Write a sequence for this structure.
């Protein structure tokens, strides 16, 4: 493989991109066209071709005045560099080729954009092309690399949902039984307003201000995902009272624990755990490979998610600004 044979496409077409995302190890629902359209901001899909095949790509989001936006964008944990599936190649060959592709791709992006900020899927573990950018020229700009974590539940490790239940923290099984004893019920819904209201309640209880901008993105993503069939909203009720609501997103590989909200007066009902386990069971029924808990980066919320037995996976945000120099 020679970088002289690489060709960059600055405006990839939607169908080719979505097919590439589905096959890429780094591909997630957050890189798919329907999800990106829900964000309501200008974007550009850029790909690298080698011998008429896409070998890498990314999505760049822009402000209305044409400036590249910092990553991660609200409610969009991963929009970084994606690579073609090279899993059949020996590790030494795959590593060297992917390093070459990413290094060349980064250089092309920085020739065009003054600032570049990307939030990469946990499946992109080799970030040396970012760390080594301008490595031998200390006076020039360098990438800042931020480490974050998510939880990935590998459904393929379990023969059934019941077998999976035996692996989670005991208190979660107790909460599930409590919800059943309390005669809580779960229904599929399209009532996004309930989700938004209960989500606001959670943030208010944590002392976090929920801005109108955040509510806009929550509703936009929920509405698009339900309309296009890549999301499901379920609500847990005590009689007619909605005590918990969760939106999951889906692609062919996994389910994503996207938004959740709970009624403050019914926190002890077991409804939130009952509902989340129901949606994990939904992923088993859909024969998906994984559930992504979409971040375990705060103490309380992270501990709750990890009690459902996912593996902790690191992922990276790489940021190069116009005036960023880590050696100053």
């Amino acid at each position: 493989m020679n970088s002289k044979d690489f060709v960059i496409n600055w405006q990839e077409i939607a169908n080719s991109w979505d097919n590439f995302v589905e096959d890429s190890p780094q591909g997630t629902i957050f890189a798919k066209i329907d999800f990106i359209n829900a964000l309501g901001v200008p974007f550009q899909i850029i790909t690298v071709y080698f011998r008429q095949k896409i070998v890498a790509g990314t999505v760049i989001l822009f402000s209305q005045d044409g400036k590249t936006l910092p990553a991660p964008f609200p409610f969009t944990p991963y929009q970084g560099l994606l690579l073609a599936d090279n899993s059949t190649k020996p590790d030494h060959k795959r590593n060297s080729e992917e390093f070459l592709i990413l290094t060349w791709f980064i250089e092309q992006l920085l020739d065009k954009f003054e600032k570049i900020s990307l939030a990469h899927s946990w499946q992109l573990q080799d970030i040396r092309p970012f760390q080594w950018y301008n490595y031998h020229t200390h006076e020039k700009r360098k990438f800042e690399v931020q480490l974050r974590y998510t939880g990935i539940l590998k459904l393929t490790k379990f023969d059934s949902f019941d077998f999976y239940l035996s692996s989670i923290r005991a208190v979660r099984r107790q909460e599930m039984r409590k919800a059943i004893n309390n005669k809580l019920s779960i229904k599929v819904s399209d009532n996004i307003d309930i989700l938004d209201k209960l989500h606001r309640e959670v943030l208010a209880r944590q002392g976090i201000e929920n801005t109108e901008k955040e509510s806009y993105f929550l509703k936009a993503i929920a509405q698009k995902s339900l309309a296009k069939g890549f999301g499901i909203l379920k609500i847990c009720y005590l009689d007619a009272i909605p005590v918990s609501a969760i939106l999951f997103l889906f692609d062919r590989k996994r389910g994503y624990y996207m938004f959740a909200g709970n009624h403050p007066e019914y926190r002890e009902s077991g409804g939130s755990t009952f509902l989340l386990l129901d949606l994990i069971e939904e992923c088993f029924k859909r024969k998906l490979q994984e559930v992504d808990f979409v971040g375990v980066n705060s103490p309380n919320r992270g501990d709750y998610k990890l009690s459902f037995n996912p593996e902790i996976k690191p992922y990276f945000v790489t940021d190069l600004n116009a005036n960023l120099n880590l050696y100053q």
